Amino acid sequence: MATAGSKRPPEGTPDVGLDASAADQADRLAVARVLEGERDAFAGIVARHGRGIHRLAFRLLRDPALAEEVAQEALARAYTGLGSFRGEGSIRPWLYRITANLCRDVMKRADRREHASADPTLDGTATAVGGSPFGRLREVEVDRRRALAALEGAIARLPDGQREAFVLRLIENLPYEEMEAATGVAVGALKVRVHRARERLKAELGELLDGIVEETPT
Q1: 10-115: what CATH class?
Q2: Which of 51, 84, 114, 165 has the fewest Cβ atoms nearer than 10 Å?
Q3: How much of the chain, in percent, has pLDDT values that exceed 70?
């Protein structure tokens, strides 16, 4: 749980206090140690990427229980298949590819589209504090939470390929080259999917989308 003095890592970066190059170096060292028989060294990979794996699974499946199961299975498969990681570049796309493939399997079996759950905190009670000095601040926060909930629901209604590309690019902030490694889809096709996803979301959400998610240059 975050405390007043804690700093949450930005989306799409390793979930510990290391920059990207240091994290990649730590991952490669951990892989080597695991392959040499030091099984506990895998804990470092889990610490750096476990939250991102869970976050990706939840974004794609929209089901907390399924996301937890997929995240655990993805880490288990990564551990047992660590020898197949070539050790070139970041391990993150490889981990995300395992996670995305598991999510696709779940969605195929279930043949369903997950919809965002209603936020139980958005019950209209915020207006009850309108007479206080903090009433307006509370209303602004509730408006933002509603906007985010609307975005979550709209993302859940995207076609599978567009949703995956949108989440990897604009939620997880992966470069297109890492997205290609994670999905097996060419960069050009991924850019098309992201563009089409944004167009669909723009049509549904209008200017609300620009206030929440911005494309970053590659």
Answers
A1: mainly alpha
A2: 84
A3: 69
